[in-house]
Amino acid sequence: MKRKIITFFFVSLAFIFLVTSAYTSSNKNLFKIERNKNTNIVMYDVILNSNGEINKSNPINFYWILYTKQGQHKKITTFEKKAYGFKIKYNNSGYYELILKAVPNKIIKIIMINGIPKAEIKINNKKSYLSKVYVFANNSFIPKVSYYTLIGIDVETGTTVIEKITNKPHKVVHK
To answer: Is residue 94 part of a domain?
Structure first.
């Protein structure tokens, strides 16, 4: 009886490992958004099909990693999509164009380089692979973004590149 329980335990662990590794092999991390509010992040992954190509019908998955709750993963809510959502479309040149709500003035190309998905973006006018966006917002009920910082790797040199983009406050016009 004891041997059956131990065998069942190890078979169960092997099954969980296979299912988990099969899931993670089809999702590849692209970049993340960090914020000044807390350590939780929004992770953006590329979804690959069984051929290792970007899934055309559903290319991007994004979700919370809640480090304040032992690293739990949580879906982005409809309300949160207003801040962390994106628009994506396939470009006939062979890549996807992604525009983040958090970074609306920059186009991110989702491309495959030697079988690895990359998020290509201009950072300080240099072609770069995006690794992180850091968003700094005030702590009001409806936060306003003061600035965001793009962090990536320069495609040519392999060095880290950083660009801080400040949101300009809206001018109040008095009549």
So the answer is: yes
